[in-house]
Design a protein that fits this description.
The chain has about 400 residues and is an alpha+beta fold. Helix content is about 30%, strand content about 20%. The strands form three sheets. Strands 2-3-12-9-14-8-6-4-5 form a nine-stranded mixed β-sheet. It has a four-stranded mixed β-sheet with strand order 1-11-10-13, with no helix packed on it.
Length: about 400
């Protein structure tokens, strides 16, 4: 029918204009959308599905996570995992005590803003100490400021000493690149704000996988797979669609979306695969006094390497440091040094951040046997004899 035909066309052309780096033909994409809109069945509505859910116990024993989730680009929520990862105590009070003097740059999320990256704009409070912001949140229930992707290795590294990285996420190519790569110190990070505040649509940098742990508050997430990205009306900076308030008159193709949704509570871990687009909001009926603290990390392994390398190469055309990362990743891949084995155990923070490349095995050293010695010395003797003869012939000739 027209529905499946439209979806096939959209998915076939979803790569058009998705790059925010290379200046794709946006006018052509818009023209295609206008054609496809005519095929959208009247009254069509987005399809909502629940995110797969497993318990921490099942997750811990899982040996097929890559083939089941990350390689298939399927999100999953793990209930109670945060209790075992050494970050459940990252409460407002704890962060204020341990990192309170560190500064944070506050932002606001604005879905109607399409001329700035991610719809993220500076908040009126600007840059203030973390403890001041947390204090404001406890008294001003309408505060619109948000801490977005605040790097812990950069601003408050000491609190990561207790972190445990699940074995499913331990292998990270970003960790084994040269120290000139800034992405080694970009994550893990924190997102902090009022629990009832909505973010804009986001996707992980460099097409990496992401995992989030809810520390405080509850969040409602909506996730769209990469093949549906053009139905979100992307532009060079962000996306037009708001998944929690879709304007179907303005964005009619959004009727064809398939959206996965889930609510995360404190202690829940949410895995979001490479190139998926996601947005989070508060939970209906949530108390205005409730705050949200979300721990975030990204990683790159073989299941997203080709997409990450392409994204890195594109971003590298305008950023020299990203270009250096792309060069390193390409060289490591061509040399066959990028590991693909899954870790057998969870990593401590020290193990995780200290990952190194496996080295090429050295040839086994051994002594030559008698026959080999005779051949070697025989060849050496012949070389000497021929050299002497050649010398005498040359002298006589001269």
């Amino acid at each position: 029918g027209s529905y499946s035909l439209t979806n096939q066309i959209i998915k076939y052309t979803q790569g058009w204009g998705c790059s925010i780096f290379l200046g794709e033909p946006w006018s052509e994409v818009d023209a295609l959308r206008e054609v496809f809109v005519r095929l959208v069945p009247s009254g069509a509505e987005p399809t909502f599905k629940k995110v797969d859910a497993v318990t921490h116990e099942v997750f811990t024993e899982m040996t097929d996570f890559k083939s089941r989730y990350s390689a298939q680009r399927v999100p999953v929520v793990v209930s109670g995992a945060g209790e075992h990862l050494g970050i459940r105590h990252f409460s407002s009070e704890y962060l204020s005590q341990q990192c309170g003097t560190a500064t944070v740059s506050l932002v606001e999320y604005n879905s109607s803003t399409t001329e700035v990256w991610g719809g993220i704009t500076d908040h009126i409070d600007g840059t203030i100490p973390l403890s001041d912001f947390l204090s404001k949140l406890s008294t001003d229930f309408e505060h619109s400021g948000f801490i977005h992707d605040w790097s812990l290795p950069t601003h408050c590294p000491d609190i990561l000493s207790s972190l445990v990285v699940p074995k499913q996420f331990s292998l990270d190519y970003l960790r084994i690149t040269g120290h000139s790569c800034r992405y080694q110190k970009s994550w893990p990070s924190l997102f902090i704000g009022k629990a009832n505040r909505k973010t804009t649509l986001q996707t992980a940098s460099l097409a990496t996988h992401s995992w989030f742990v809810q520390v405080e508050g509850r969040r409602r997430w909506r996730i769209v797979e990469p093949s549906d990205v053009m139905l979100l009306y992307p532009n060079p900076y962000s996306y037009g669609v708001d998944l929690f308030d879709i304007d179907f008159d303005k964005y009619p193709l959004a009727r064809l979306l398939t959206v996965r949704e889930v609510i995360t509570s404190p202690g829940d871990l949410l895995f979001i695969p490479s190139e998926a687009v996601y947005q989070s909001d508060g939970v209906p009926g949530q108390e205005s006094s409730e705050n949200s603290i979300t721990f975030s990390n990204t990683y790159m392994d073989e299941t997203c390497f080709s997409e990450s390398l392409k994204s890195t190469q594109e971003a590298g055309t305008i950023d020299e440091m990203v270009h250096d990362l792309a060069r390193q990743l390409l060289a490591l891949n061509e040399s066959g040094l990028l590991p693909t084995n899954e870790a057998t155990h969870s990593f401590s923070w020290e193990e995780y951040k200290s990952q190194t490349l496996p080295r090429l095995a050295k040839p086994e050293e051994r002594e030559l046997d008698t026959t080999e010695m005779i051949v070697v010395y025989g060849l050496l003797g012949l070389t000497i004899v021929f050299s002497i003869v050649a010398f005498w012939i040359y002298r006589d000739f001269v």
